[in-house]
Write a structure and sequence with these properties.
Layout lengths: L2 H21 L7 H11 L16 H15 L3 E4 L2 E4 L1 H9 L3 H10 L18 H5 L4 H8 L3 H15 L15 E5 L21 E3 L4 E8 L2 E9 L6 E2 L10 E5 L2 E8 L4 E6 L1
Protein name: Glycosidase
GO molecular function, one term: hydrolase activity, acting on glycosyl bonds
Organism: Arthrobacter hankyongi
């Protein structure tokens, strides 16, 4: 694992513990939702987003394996009803307040120092609590092993829920954005994977500065990328990676809305 991947995973592991701490001792959260939220806060990079056998992103598998360290330390309990943090785990969030110190403690087997206080409770109405909410659809997607789509859904919800004020309308935008993929012909294009056709062009929403395309697609598995200015010269794949791996979508059929954010170079999709 590269140094960057190790740092990313440490941040996600800290996010897992913090989410459980926010829920409080005795409260159980779905493990799938906790993992999806951590990845939404610290998105997978290109290598971490590579799909392993079974369609599991590499970074998701690494994080899942890393949570066993929390169990071994006695800070996390995994049960059939969900995951919950122990009292010692709550104190660990105080003793090891950042990702680096938490990772070091887990690696060295460092116990929580005696006398470490419990963290201050977070009010239920705090903005952080709202931002941490994970939609039920994301949990269902994870349980169905559609992990990549689950991460995109949680990211979309997190971006919308944490927006605080007007979007910068001065942010430079491309002249055009197309969703070029294997559903082009379903939208009326003469052929698939061609970014110059009008049918796959997105429209910029001036209110939130997102490019959007709503389409009616039959049920199926689709792959696509965001291509700028009606050519492949500049294009972005999964997790906003330039010339990256294709976005993948399992669609149950019917209307769906795609959103491209030029600030993150990523695409999200949700049923309309």
């Amino acid at each position: 694992m590269t140094a960057n991947a190790q740092e990313n995973n440490a941040n996600r592991l800290k996010a897992v513990l913090d989410s459980l701490a926010q829920a409080g001792e005795g409260s159980k959260l779905g493990g799938s939702a906790v993992l999806a939220e951590a990845i939404a806060r610290f998105p997978l990079n290109g290598q971490e987003g590579e799909l392993l056998s079974g369609g599991v992103p590499r970074g998701h598998k690494t994080l899942t394996s890393a949570t066993t360290k929390l169990v071994k330390a006695g800070w996390l309990v995994k049960g059939r009803g969900g995951w919950n943090i122990t009292e010692d785990g709550l104190r660990a969030t105080v003793a090891f307040p950042d990702a680096a110190s938490l990772a070091a403690a887990l690696a060295d087997g460092t116990p929580v120092p005696a006398g470490t206080p419990l963290p201050e409770p977070v009010p239920a109405e705090a903005p952080e609590a709202e931002a941490a909410a994970v939609p039920a659809e994301a949990v269902q997607l994870v349980e169905a092993a559609d992990l990549a789509q689950a991460v995109e859904l949680v990211q979309a919800v997190a971006e919308e829920s944490t927006a605080t004020g007007p979007v910068d309308a001065a942010f430079p935008q491309p002249a055009a954005v197309a969703l070029a993929g294997d559903f082009g012909t379903a939208l009326g294009c003469p052929e698939d994977w061609q970014p110059h056709f009008d049918e796959v062009q997105m429209t910029l929403d001036p209110n939130d500065q997102l490019w959007k395309l709503t389409a009616e697609l039959p049920a199926g598995f689709y792959s696509f990328k965001a291509a700028l200015n009606r050519s492949w010269d500049e294009n972005y794949g999964a997790f906003g990676q330039p010339d990256g791996a294709n976005h993948e979508l399992h669609h149950t059929g019917g209307p769906i809305t795609f959103r491209y954010d030029h600030r993150t170079k990523d695409v999200t999709a949700s049923a309309s």
